[in-house]
Design brief:
The chain has 362 residues and is mainly α. Helix content is 50%, strand content 4%.
C-alpha cells in the first residue's frame, strides 16, 4: 500500500508567493500571456490579504472562501476612479467571477503541490450568474455596419478624409490596416499590438501571418490579396518613416504597428483609433464598438456566409468550437428574414388577401 503524500503546511502568504513565482515563470516561457499573468498576480495577492497572510492554507474552508468573495465584491473597484462609469458601489458579478477563477486556479495548484488536503473551492458556493443588459459595445456589427466602418478608413481617392493636425501625425494608412485586420481576420487586440514584421511571410503570390496567441500558441492565416496589398503599402511607406524615428529601439524596430513617435502601438492605442473610426461612421450605423466586437463580427459574418464553425474557430485561435459559439451573435435582420420565410407566412397573407386585407389578427 502506497503512503499518502506528506502535507506541506504553508501560510497563505508563503503559498501565494510560491504560486505567483510559478505564474511568472509560465509568463516568461510563453505558457501564459503577460495580461493573464498580471491578472493572476493581482487577484491572488488580494485573495491572500482577504484570507489572512499568516493563516495556514490548509485551514482555509469553503466558508472562508465565500466570506473572502463577499468582501471582495463589497470593496471599491480600483479600476474606476470616476463613480459615473459604474452603476453601483463595489465590484460587478462578472469581476467577482473572474476573481473566483483566479482563486480556483490557485487552490487547484495548492492541491497538486500537497499544500492542502482538499481543495476548499469544492465546498464554496457556486458562482453567481451574470445578469444585466446587452453589452452593445462588444457585440457583432452587421455586414452593412462593418462595411460602413471600413469605408471610414478608405483611401483619400475613395472619399473625403479628415486632414491631420500635423503631417507627421498622418497615420491613415496604418489605421486602415488595423481596422481591416480586425474586421477580416478577427485577431485579439493583444495579438495585433504584439505582432512583428517578421511574423508575416510575404511572397509574390501569398502573404501569411503567424499569429502568436494565448499561452504562446500559434496559428497561421493567409491574407487576401487586397489585405496583403494594404499591408505592403504600409510597410514600404509609412512604417519605414516611423521606424527611422527610433533606430535604437529594438522593440520598435521589430514591431508591425508604430505610433507617430516611432514606438510600438499598445492595445489602448488600437482601441482609441477604432473609436475615432467609429465616430466617423454614418449616423444610421454608428454605435460603440471595441476590438472584441470586431472579433465577434468576423466570426458571425463568416458563419452567416456558410463557413464551417471549425474553420472560424481555427481563424480566431479557439481551442474549442464551443468558445466560438459564444462569439456568434445574431445579425440584425436574420430573425426577421426567417419569420418572413416561415411556411405559414404565405398562407396567412393569402387569408388576409381573401378578406380584402381588412381583417386583423385576433
Amino acid at each position: 500500500m502506497v503512503a499518502p503524500p506528506r502535507l506541506d503546511l504553508l501560510s497563505v502568504a508563503e503559498a501565494a508567493d510560491r504560486y505567483l513565482a510559478s505564474v511568472r515563470k509560465d509568463a516568461v516561457r510563453g505558457a501564459l500571456s503577460p495580461t493573464t499573468a498580471r491578472s493572476y498576480v493581482r487577484d491572488v495577492t488580494e485573495l491572500a490579504s482577504l484570507l489572512g497572510h499568516d493563516r495556514i492554507l490548509d485551514d482555509v474552508t469553503g466558508d472562508d472562501v465565500d466570506d473572502a468573495l463577499v468582501r471582495y465584491q463589497a470593496s471599491p473597484d480600483g479600476r474606476f476612479s470616476d463613480p459615473g462609469r459604474k452603476r453601483g458601489p463595489g465590484r460587478s458579478t462578472a469581476t467577482v467571477n473572474r476573481f473566483r477563477q483566479s482563486a480556483t486556479r490557485f487552490f487547484a495548484h495548492a492541491a497538486r503541490e500537497c499544500w492542502v488536503q482538499a481543495d476548499p473551492m469544492l465546498w464554496a458556493a457556486p458562482p453567481a450568474r451574470v445578469r444585466g443588459g446587452l453589452r452593445v459595445a462588444r457585440t457583432a456589427l452587421s455586414a452593412a455596419a462593418a462595411q460602413a466602418l471600413l469605408s471610414t478608413t478608405a483611401a483619400p481617392s475613395a472619399g473625403p478624409a479628415p486632414e491631420p493636425a500635423r503631417r507627421d501625425q498622418d497615420l491613415a494608412v496604418r489605421d486602415r490596416l488595423v481596422v481591416a485586420l480586425l474586421l477580416v481576420l478577427g485577431p485579439r487586440v493583444s495579438e495585433l499590438s504584439g505582432a512583428d514584421v517578421d511574423d508575416f511571410a510575404r511572397e509574390p503570390d501569398q502573404t501569411r501571418w503567424r499569429i502568436v496567441g494565448k499561452g504562446g500558441t500559434t496559428r497561421t492565416v493567409a491574407l487576401s490579396p487586397p489585405l496583403a496589398a494594404l499591408l505592403e503599402e504600409y510597410l514600404t511607406g509609412l512604417r519605414r518613416r516611423l521606424s527611422a524615428l527610433r533606430p535604437d529601439d529594438d522593440d520598435a524596430r521589430g514591431a508591425l504597428l508604430l505610433t507617430w513617435r516611432g514606438r510600438r502601438v499598445d492595445p489602448q492605442a488600437i482601441r482609441a483609433l477604432l473609436a475615432r473610426a467609429v465616430a466617423r461612421m454614418p449616423d444610421a450605423y454608428r454605435r460603440p464598438a471595441t476590438p472584441h466586437a470586431l472579433r465577434h463580427t468576423t466570426a458571425t459574418l463568416l458563419v452567416a456566409q456558410g463557413w464551417d464553425v471549425k474553420v472560424v474557430a481555427e481563424l480566431l485561435g479557439h481551442a474549442s468550437i464551443a468558445t466560438t459559439g459564444v462569439y456568434l451573435d445574431r445579425i440584425e435582420g436574420e430573425l426577421a428574414a426567417a419569420i418572413r420565410a416561415h411556411p405559414l407566412t404565405a398562407a396567412l397573407d393569402a387569408s388576409r388577401g381573401g378578406a380584402g386585407g381588412e381583417r386583423g389578427l385576433a
